[in-house]
């Protein structure tokens, strides 16, 4: 997410729990840590767009997609974008199992780039980007692993790790335009950004950017059977909706395209800082977010009609 005021309040709508809660324990802190220790390691040197480090991350993502039955959507997993540096999104696809609904897509995304080498602090100049956004990347990888294993999705799903987010959402802008030109039938886009640490003093574990624009939070809370997702006034003031990879899909498709996040500008002081390190992440919180999102996303992709929509 690009640059940023602070303080927050609870707000938004309350959930109507018409669905029974579903407890899923698919992933755990060990599985989450395995991804995080690789993606945020010094060996990747901050995953700067066009670098050898981000190329290693892309290979890691491709290997996991292939292992878990997520196939390339294009001719290969790597979808190159045109900018000043060599860059590519990693795009995987899981076909839906319903003859009609499989023509509709839900995109699950996160950016896997970061800012590379930054200002030196106590001899360290590598901005490892653990929270920003190895954490979101890890969520997408674990969600891809679950859905690729279970294959219970009636709608088709696209799993995307975006490059060049830190250069101005270049990867998501590229893919959104490309898919729009292909008459891609997008139902919704759910983006994951900075879920590595929990919020404090909240009655929900994540917030949704652009909360008041759609009924997505209400519907996902309904699917969860509890209040899982809340509102962040701080995020609204800092334009998280416009500064994350959901935004190009909103601009192109005008369908609900929003970001799940637990960084609220109050709970983590190392945004775009070399001290954004993996040892500061809460793997149990991350695993909880993924497990909770599995149940609601499964209900989302299997709903008989497009229940999530922008507010008029």
Highlighted features:
312 residues, alpha/beta, Aminopeptidase, nine-stranded mixed β-sheet, two-stranded antiparallel ribbon, 9 helices, 11 strands, 17% strand
Identify the CATH homologous superfamily: Zn peptidases
Beta fraction: 15-25%
Whole-number mean pLDDT = 93
Instruction: Please identify, by name, the CATH architecture.
Output: 3-Layer(aba) Sandwich
Level of helix content? 25-40%
Distance between the termini: 27 Å
- Strand tally is 11
**Highest-level CATH class:** Alpha Beta
Sketch the major β-sheet: 9 strands, mixed
Which series of helices and strands comes N to C?
HHEEEEEEHEHEEHEHHHEH
**What is the SS-derived class?**
alpha/beta
Shape: globular
- Rounded Rg: 18 Å
Describe this structure as you would to a colleague:
The chain has helices spanning about 30-40, 50-65, 130-150, 170-180, 215-225, 235, 240-245, 245-255, 285-300; strands at about 70, 80, 85-95, 105-110, 115-120, 125, 155-160, 185-190, 205-210, 230, 255-260. The protein is α/β, with parallel strands linked by helices. It is built from nine helices and eleven strands. The chain has one domain: 3-Layer(aba) Sandwich (Aminopeptidase), CATH 3.40.630.10. It is globular. Helix 5 packs across helix 9 (about 285-300). The strands form two sheets. Strands 1, 2, 3, 4, 7, 8, 9, 10 and 11 form a nine-stranded mixed β-sheet that branches. It starts with about 30 loop residues before the first helix and ends in a 10-residue tail after the last helix.
């Amino acid at each position: 997410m690009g640059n940023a005021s602070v303080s927050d309040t609870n707000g938004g709508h309350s959930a109507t729990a018409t669905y029974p809660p579903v407890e899923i324990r698919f992933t755990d802190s060990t599985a989450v840590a395995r991804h995080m220790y690789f993606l945020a390691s010094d060996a990747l040197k901050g995953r700067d767009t066009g670098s050898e480090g981000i190329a290693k991350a892309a290979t890691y993502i491709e290997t996991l997609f292939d292992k878990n039955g997520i196939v390339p959507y294009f001719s290969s997993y790597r979808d190159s974008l045109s900018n000043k540096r060599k860059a590519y999104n990693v795009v995987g696809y899981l076909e839906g199992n319903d003859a009609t609904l499989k023509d509709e897509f839900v995109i699950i995304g996160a950016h896997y780039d970061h800012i590379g080498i930054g200002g030196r602090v106590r001899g360290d100049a590598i901005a490892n980007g653990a929270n920003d956004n190895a954490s979101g990347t890890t969520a997408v990888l674990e969600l891809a692993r679950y859905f690729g294993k279970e294959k219970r999705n009636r709608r088709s799903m696209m799993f995307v790790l975006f490059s060049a987010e830190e250069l101005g959402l270049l990867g998501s802008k590229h893919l959104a335009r490309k898919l729009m030109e292909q008459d891609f039938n997008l139902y919704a886009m759910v983006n994951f950004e900075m879920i590595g640490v929990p919020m404090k003093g909240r009655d929900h574990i994540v917030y949704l950017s652009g909360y008041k624009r759609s009924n997505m939070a209400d519907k996902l809370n309904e699917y969860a059977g509890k209040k899982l997702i809340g509102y962040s006034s701080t995020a609204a003031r800092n334009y998280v909706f416009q500064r994350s990879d959901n935004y190009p899909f909103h601009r192109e498709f005008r369908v609900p395209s929003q970001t799940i996040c637990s960084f609220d500008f109050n709970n983590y002081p190392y945004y775009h800082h070399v001290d954004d390190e993996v040892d500061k992440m809460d793997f149990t919180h991350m695993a909880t977010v993924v497990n909770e999102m599995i149940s609601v996303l499964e209900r989302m992709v299997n709903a008989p009609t497009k229940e999530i929509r922008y507010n008029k």
